[in-house]
């Protein structure tokens, strides 16, 4: 959750709070699935892709167990089909 507090007439300060525990977080990360703001204690999994990372809360990571296995199975199937196609073209 993001709370905006007017500290002076000249400056607005935005604070970010973890949607799970309510603790203020200074490194703003959110779950890439449910978009909850997360503190470092509530990032269950962080997957790096180059300079950026995808963060998951525990609930979303647990829900995704079935889907990650299916995605891996289908990626393997795609790889097998490419190999089979290439083999047929080479013969």
Report on this structure.
This protein has 91 residues and is an alpha+beta fold. It has one domain. The chain has helices at 58-63, 65-90; strands spanning 2-6, 12-17, 24-25, 29-30, 37-38, 45-49, 52-56. A hairpin with a 2-residue loop joins strand 6 and strand 7 (52-56).
What topology does this entry show?
Layout: E1 2-6, E2 12-17, E3 24-25, E4 29-30, E5 37-38, E6 45-49, E7 52-56, H1 58-63, H2 65-90
Antiparallel strand pairs: 1-2, 2-3, 4-5, 6-7
Q: Summary?
A:
The chain has one domain. 35% of the residues lie in helices and 30% in strands. It contains two helices and seven strands, in the order βββββββαα.
**What characterizes the major β-sheet?**
3 strands, antiparallel
Number of domains: 1
Q: Mean pLDDT across all residues, rounded?
A: 91
Portion in helices? 25-40%
The share of residues in extended strands comes to 25-35%
Structural class: alpha+beta
Give the oligomer, counting copies of the same chain as homo and different chains as hetero.
single chain
Strand order of the largest sheet: 1-2-3
Tell me the span between the first and last alpha carbons: 60 Å
What gross morphology would you assign?
elongated
Poorly predicted segments: none
User: What's the total number of strands?
Assistant: 7
Instruction: Please provide the ordered H/E string of secondary-structure elements.
Output: EEEEEEEHH
Q: Enumerate how many helices there are, as a single number.
A: 2
Radius of gyration: 21 Å
């Amino acid at each position: 959750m993001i709370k905006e507090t007017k500290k002076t007439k000249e400056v607005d300060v935005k604070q970010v709070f973890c949607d799970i525990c309510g603790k203020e977080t200074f490194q703003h990360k959110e779950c890439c699935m449910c978009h909850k703001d997360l503190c470092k204690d509530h990032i269950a999994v962080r997957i790096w892709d180059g300079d950026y990372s995808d963060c998951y809360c525990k609930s979303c990571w647990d829900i995704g167990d079935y889907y990650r296995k299916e995605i891996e199975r289908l990626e393997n199937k795609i790889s097998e089909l490419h190999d089979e196609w290439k083999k047929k073209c080479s013969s």
